[in-house]
Each structure stands twice: as C-alpha cells, then as structure tokens.
Design goal:
Layout: H1 5-19, E1 23-25, E2 33-37, E3 50-57, E4 60-63, H2 74-82, H3 87-94, E5 99-116, E6 123-136, H4 138-149, E7 170-175, E8 182-187, H5 207-213, H6 218-230, H7 238-241, H8 328-340
Parallel strand pairs: 1-6
Antiparallel strand pairs: 2-5, 2-7, 3-4, 3-5, 5-6, 7-8
Helix pairs in contact: 2-6
Length: about 350
C-alpha cells in the first residue's frame, strides 16, 4: 500500500501546532522572534515577571517553593548534603551537569507575526498568534527590562511600553551556539495597538498559578533530594550511598497570598501533630474543624510539552492549558526534561547585571 501524502502533511501540521505550547524557553528562540510583553496581573505585585528558582538534580528540575514566598525544606536538604562528609556527594554537587541551582524569570507575552508594507517592506503592524510564557535567564531578561524602563519608551501611561494602544512590540534574537550563544532584545521603532481581547484578565494566563502548579509537595521534594544524593534506586549511586537518608522535617504549610511574604502562624500552646503542605496528620474529631489549606487551582493547567532537545532527551513534549489536573505529575516531569537543556547553549550573565 502506498503512502497517503496528504495525511502525512496534515500530521506534520498537527505536530507543529502541538509544539507551540504556552512555554518558550530562551534557548528555543529563533534568530528573529517578534513579541509583545503583557502587563502584570494583580497577583504579580506590580512586576511583569515571576522569579523561578530551580534545582537541577540529574535529569530532573525541582522548582523551589520559595519562588513564590513559601517556606521549603530545600535549604536544609542542601546543607545536610554539603555537611555529609561524603566525598562522592561533594563531587556530585560540584558537577554542574548533575547538580545546579539557577534563577530564571517567567513572563507573559503575545507571540506575533509582523506585517510589512508590500512596497517599502517597513513594519506597519502585527498579527497576534497566541499568549505564551517566556522563561529566560538574566541576560535576556536584563535587556527586556532596559527597554521597559528606558526613558525613550515612556509614553505617559502607567503601563509604558506594555500599554495596549501606545505600547511597542519587541524583537528577540538568538545568535551563536552553546557557550557563545547571545540573546538580544530590541524595541520596534513604532507604537502599535493590540486588540482588547488579549488584555482581558479573566482570559489571561495566570503566571503565578502556572508556576505554583509545577511545584512538588514537601514530601515529594524530600524524596527527590534523598534519592539523588543518597541512593537512586535505578542508578549506580545506590550501593555507595543507599544507607543514608535525610529526615528533614517538612516546612510549615504555605500560609500566604501569592507573591506576598509568608505570615508565620503564632506559636501554639500545646504540641500539635506535625503538618505538611499536602495533608495534615490525623486529628481527633472536632465540632468545627478548621478547613485544610490547599493550593489554589490555577486558571490554566500545564499541557504536555513536545519541544525536543536531542542532547538531553528523546521524549517529545509541550505545555498547554487544556490538560486535566490529574496529569500534573506527568507535566512536571516533562517540564523538567525540557528545562534540562538550559544547562547548555547560552552564555550566563551574573544576576548582579540585572537593573532591578
């Protein structure tokens, strides 16, 4: 039987559509990428990005709850590993390909297709493709911030260059390869208006909730760090470090409004049963038990990611807002694999270079 080329072409189109999920990692930028930064939602505290601190453990990436101001057992776990006295663990922590701490910035934007004048070839407008999230390191984020805060781009509005009518688009670019890769951001030379429908807050991607949704629980975090440092059941480190385990107490429940400092609960008079973020220990029946704290559900959930990095994994993946909540664990694993290629392919800039 011969090949049905029309079906294969349609399949290719479906793959291309699927690969353009809501996440864009900076190392996936094309040489020219047009975008419009969106103003922050109310829960972002007046800044256009969310800081995301991530710990790389082998092929997994663990998003630190402190990114959103929550208490976390991670500092205690890391300190215990450093003080373990095990030379193998110390060597592992110095291997940047195996263990790494990094800070990235997640920001909402509109992916654009530029419209050029047929006669002159000059920019005259844009077509909005979709809303997405850029995940960038300090190098690209610093250049974006310079444009947003630059006095040449202020227009008398409180949103500045992010204003729907008087704002400007940006051109992001990627040049070079591996350690010689550089990222740049430039502002369009003209102001352009964007359709109002893209600025309706109820329809926007909630960046805070999206980042929170890919976080592990305290118990999961402790298990991942123990497995990595002291005995991965499926790896060669099992025999040499399988006897040790960190028994760090989980952090207290996340008691906060997103992006606001943690408010610690007052000291109890009696010794209560230990509480974790995910489930409180069994308590005697009470007439009016207090409701458990649970994570607020985000407006949009994470979809499978199919952006492929052949150097780190052969699994296709993408992220979207239409996957059911019960697939969060799978989506987190796929995101970890997707983020793993951030370990190469860009020139890192010290965070002190950020102008904020």
């Amino acid at each position: 039987m011969g090949l049905d080329m029309s079906k294969l072409k349609n399949f290719k189109h479906e793959l291309e559509e699927k690969s353009s999920g809501i996440w864009l990692f900076q190392n996936k930028l094309t040489p020219e990428y047009d975008a419009r930064m969106l103003p922050p939602l109310e829960n972002m505290g007046g800044v256009y990005f969310v800081r995301k601190k991530t710990y790389t453990l082998g092929k997994k990436s663990i998003v630190c709850p402190s990114s959103l101001g929550y208490e976390t057992p991670i500092p205690q776990l890391v300190e215990a590993a450093k003080n373990s006295g095990d030379p193998e663990i110390i060597k592992l922590m110095k291997n940047r390909k195996e263990y790494r701490e990094r800070e990235e910035y997640v920001m909402p934007y509109l992916e654009l297709k530029p419209i050029l004048d047929e006669d002159t070839g000059q920019l005259i407008g844009q077509e909005v493709i979709k809303e997405r999230l850029l995940c960038a390191t300090s190098q690209l984020t610093g250049q974006i911030n310079d444009i947003i805060t630059g006095r040449n781009y202020q227009n008398g509005t409180k949103e500045g260059i992010l204003h729907r009518v008087k704002g400007r688009n940006m051109l992001w670019s990627k040049q070079g390869e591996l350690l010689d890769t550089e990222y740049k951001a430039e502002a369009w030379p003209i102001e352009t208006e964007i359709e109002e429908k893209w600025y309706i807050e109820e329809s926007r991607i909630d960046v805070v909730q999206t980042v929170e949704e890919i976080m592990l629980s305290d118990d999961e975090i402790i298990a991942e760090f123990n497995s990595f440092f002291y005995g991965n059941p499926s790896g060669p480190r099992q025999q040499s470090r399988s006897s040790s385990r960190i028994t760090a107490e989980p952090a207290q429940p996340r008691a906060m409004t997103r992006n606001r400092p943690v408010q610690k609960a007052p000291e109890p008079e009696a010794d209560p049963a230990p509480v974790t973020r995910q489930r409180a220990a069994a308590q005697p029946a009470q007439e009016d038990p207090a409701p458990q704290r649970t994570r607020t559900q985000r407006a949009r959930t994470v979809e499978e990611a199919d952006v492929v990095d052949e150097e780190t994994t052969s699994t296709g993946r993408s992220l979207s807002d239409d996957v059911q909540k019960d697939s969060r664990g799978t989506a987190r694993n796929m995101l970890s694999q997707l983020e793993d290629d951030e370990d190469r392919g860009f020139k890192e800039v010290d965070d002190d270079a950020l102008p904020f």
